[in-house]
Amino acid sequence: MRSPIGPLEFTRRTWVRLWLLAVFVFLYAPIVVLIAFSFNKSKRNIVWTGFTTDWYGRALNNSSLIEAFTNSIMIALVSTVLSVILGGLLALGLYRFRFPGKSVLDGVSALPIVIPEICMGVALLVFYARVGWPTGLPWPLNLSQVIIGHVVFSFPFVAVVVRARMEGFDRSLEEASKDLGASEWQTFWNVTLPYMKTGLIAGGLLAMTLSLDDFVITFFTSGPETITFPVKIYSMVRQSVTPEVNAASTILIVFTVALTLVALKFQKPSEGVG
What we know:
The protein has 274 residues and is mainly α.
């Protein structure tokens, strides 16, 4: 016999379950349709004529698509490393030190998170034009404009994740390390950094996911020879939405979802060190 539904057991109510189901269908049905039609034999996305994986082969043999994917990976890797360094140092500084203007720095560092991407993209475009940023550089130096743009909006997210991690840090561990004769650098390397590692990894994976997915800022800062995977997919969609576009989009979705799951795993407190 089923126990009566309690006043706070909302998930046991039928109408709540139906509402949640409708929300999930609304959010994820387009993605499911996109992935399903990436296996469609027909070029037309409105008629299902049979199952095939040929479009994935065509996408992987498309040299311009592979070049765009390579650019995206390189930009994501470099911007992630720089974002982890800057975000980690910013989080550690805001957590540990007290100095004039700390609240202002705390607020300003979060601006890239709240500023609309379209505004940041235009601002970077004007900035590069104003300073006369060099063009025509060999690969991968020609990706520097896009990399800087991605670092600008990625490192605040890393700082947020690392700072949340540091809130549970026991400062007495550092004092004990120094009492045992360790220097400031040895204490940081052997005590503080291992505790920060979980936050740094989670923040880095988050920054990489944001970089791989970004379209708006990349659209304003990239050139003809520095097209990234999202921008390339957009240019293909403007001609026609073929299953090849669906296959390329599916690859990007799977890649970013995998990175997001890994980031969520590292953000769990029980998975961390200490």
